[in-house]
């Protein structure tokens, strides 16, 4: 990262850069929150659904399905939102469907939203996979390229056109991946009618999780006044006992505006305030935001209330938005990762948004269960492998002190054609959207721009140099990484990252069954990479598949014993290297997850230390033992949290 010699000046420069970068996109993407001036109406529940199974998947557009009720266009089924549609029915053609699917829901909108012209009504889709088009009462309001990130459109004028009608929302979603999407994929048509049915095609993907599709996160309608707080950017810092919250508020729709910014502690007491749209709030006797197991009260959050008084041609408005703010710093040296200037060791997991029936659909019970499991096992961090997770998950991380490496969907970039400008430009746009969405989360300490790209290919250097520099310019306050495969030590992007993240599977994909190679090969890996780049290293993936309940001693591949020994052998090496430059270890994977069908996958990837239903395998107890031990060694735990403890 940048020079730590003049931290004050450095932070100010960072702040300006982040404020400027935040302006690259037209608008902010604040998480919708209710307040005295804002209402939120969640549209979770049953939607009408129809997959377009016509040969070219274009019948919905040819026949303009968005113009009438979906049920009038043909047969529809009930589809829960949010959820992937793939595992909801018994129909294999829907599970493996590729192309356009159509969702529709009618909503009765509160009368005030219609009568009050000073109210702005916005539709927001938390995420839909992959390409989406949204219509309201038959009129297209927006389209969005890419899953895992939110998009919005203003719809007030449309719902006011005919207040006697309910508001009909139609969303078409297409999960087709191309060489230019993130993640990339390609459609392969096979015309040999002696072997394949007419029109046969497959979606080739180069990543190891099922390409679940549909509306994955909640769809909302929310309101703001027509003059409103559009975006807030905060960058935090501290000196001795005084915290600093550098902030900037962006306003839209106002001809004149004044703001009042109030920072409140957990008990609601004002600790600092200002009447400027940007500036610095100083917090004496600051409660810093600390990671879980690094402090007795992790995840301390202040509330920053922004109160806007604004006028436009028509009237005056008050808008109130409250942002949770954790005050902390992040920095990197050649051997350490520092949070609040203290060494932080990542002992955590890689996850997926994945579960039975729901696929990648947002689900509160699952999320809360996962957080309880993370805390039970003493994990202090995770990587959002291999795409941005729901904002609600990051909010949980902020509150519980779980540290996040925030990864974009740059996974499976293996084809040389995916390094062309069109792909790069989309990748840059996705980073803009990701940073815009997640920049204010204290839990997010690093951006990951990709996972295991074919970084040995010649165009990779320009591609990743551009991407990493762009991300650093967007947010100079956080380190940037991308995740390498250990076999590419001649990695073309590695010189540009702040932290080296390496995935390796010794005695699994290489030398299968030979547990004895792990100490040597892992040691060689670390020495090679550190020797070449002199940057701190995270073992960002390691592990082995274990089919739950499969046992053998001596251990054999796919048994719980084998998975255990792989982990233990790696841990011995980690223990040597963490005294030097290893700054973290993230198991692959937290839980079993679904993949495409193939000869190396037994109903999905079984490298979870928990099953897909979140029951522990033997490996989970190994990690629990280890993570609590690491926490006791490296954290500053009060006696009551020492392992063993009951959470
Ligand atoms: C990897 C990938 C991850 C896979 C994992 C595996 O290197 O990053 O997406 O699931 O290996 O189990 O093969």
Automatic annotation (TrEMBL):
Lineage: superkingdom: Eukaryota
Protein name: Uncharacterized protein
């Amino acid at each position: 990262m940048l020079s730590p010699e003049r931290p004050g000046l450095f932070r100010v420069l960072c702040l300006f850069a982040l404020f400027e970068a935040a302006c690259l996109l037209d608008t902010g993407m604040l998480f919708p929150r209710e307040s005295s001036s804002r209402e939120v109406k969640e549209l979770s529940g049953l939607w009408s659904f129809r997959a377009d199974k016509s040969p070219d998947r274009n019948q919905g557009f040819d026949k303009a399905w968005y113009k009438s009720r979906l049920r009038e266009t043909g047969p529809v089924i009930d589809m829960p939102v949010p959820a992937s549609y793939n595992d909801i029915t018994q129909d294999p053609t829907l599970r493996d469907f590729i192309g356009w699917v159509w969702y529709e829901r009618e909503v009765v909108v509160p009368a005030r939203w219609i009568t009050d012209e000073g109210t702005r009504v916005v539709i927001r889709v938390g995420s839909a996979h992959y390409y989406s088009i949204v219509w309201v009462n038959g009129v297209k309001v927006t389209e969005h390229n890419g899953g895992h990130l939110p998009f919005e459109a203003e719809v007030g004028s449309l719902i006011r056109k005919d207040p006697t009608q309910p508001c009909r929302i139609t969303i078409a979603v297409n999960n087709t991946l191309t060489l230019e999407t993130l993640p990339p994929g390609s459609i392969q048509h096979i015309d040999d009618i002696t072997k394949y049915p007419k029109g046969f095609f497959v979606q080739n993907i180069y990543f190891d999780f099922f390409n679940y599709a549909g509306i994955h996160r909640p769809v909302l309608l929310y309101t703001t006044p027509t003059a409103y707080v559009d975006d807030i950017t905060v960058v935090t810092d501290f000196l001795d006992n005084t915290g600093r919250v550098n902030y900037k508020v962006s306003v839209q729709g106002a001809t004149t505006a004044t703001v009042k910014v109030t920072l409140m502690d957990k008990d609601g007491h004002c600790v600092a305030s200002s009447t400027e749209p940007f500036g610095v709030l100083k917090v004496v006797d600051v409660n810093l935001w600390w990671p879980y197991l690094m402090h007795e009260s992790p995840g301390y959050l202040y509330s920053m209330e922004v109160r806007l008084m604004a006028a436009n041609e028509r009237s005056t408005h008050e808008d109130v938005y409250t942002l949770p703010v954790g005050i902390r710093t992040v920095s990197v040296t050649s051997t350490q990762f520092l949070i609040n200037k203290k060494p932080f060791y990542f002992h955590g997991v890689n996850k997926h948004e994945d579960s039975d029936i729901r696929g990648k659909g947002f689900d509160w019970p699952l999320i809360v269960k996962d957080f309880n499991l993370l805390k039970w096992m003493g994990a202090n961090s995770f990587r959002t492998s291999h795409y941005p997770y729901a904002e609600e998950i990051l909010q949980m991380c902020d509150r519980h002190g779980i540290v996040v490496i925030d990864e974009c969907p740059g996974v499976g970039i293996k084809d040389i054609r995916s390094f062309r400008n069109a792909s790069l430009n989309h990748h840059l746009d996705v980073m803009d959207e990701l940073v815009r969405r997640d920049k204010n989360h204290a839990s997010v300490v690093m951006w990951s721009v990709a996972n295991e790209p074919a970084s040995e290919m010649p165009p990779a250097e320009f591609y990743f140099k551009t991407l990493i520099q762009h991300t650093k310019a967007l947010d100079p306050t956080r380190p940037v990484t991308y995740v390498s495969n250990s076999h590419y030590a001649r990695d073309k992007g590695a010189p540009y990252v702040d932290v080296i993240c390496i995935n390796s599977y010794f005695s699994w994909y290489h030398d299968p069954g030979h547990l004895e190679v792990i100490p040597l090969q892992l040691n060689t890996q670390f020495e090679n990479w550190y020797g070449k780049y002199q940057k701190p290293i995270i073992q960002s993936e390691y592990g082995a598949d274990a089919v739950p309940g499969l046992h053998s001693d001596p251990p054999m591949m796919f048994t719980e014993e084998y998975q255990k020994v792989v982990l233990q052998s790696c841990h011995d090496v980690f223990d040597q290297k963490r005294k030097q430059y290893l700054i973290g270890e993230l198991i692959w994977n937290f839980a079993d997850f679904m993949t495409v069908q193939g000869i190396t996958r037994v109903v999905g990837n079984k490298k979870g230390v928990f099953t897909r239903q979140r029951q522990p395998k033997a490996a989970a107890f190994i990690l629990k033992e280890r993570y609590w031990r690491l926490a006791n060694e490296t954290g500053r735990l009060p006696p009551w949290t020492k392992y063993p403890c009951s959470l």
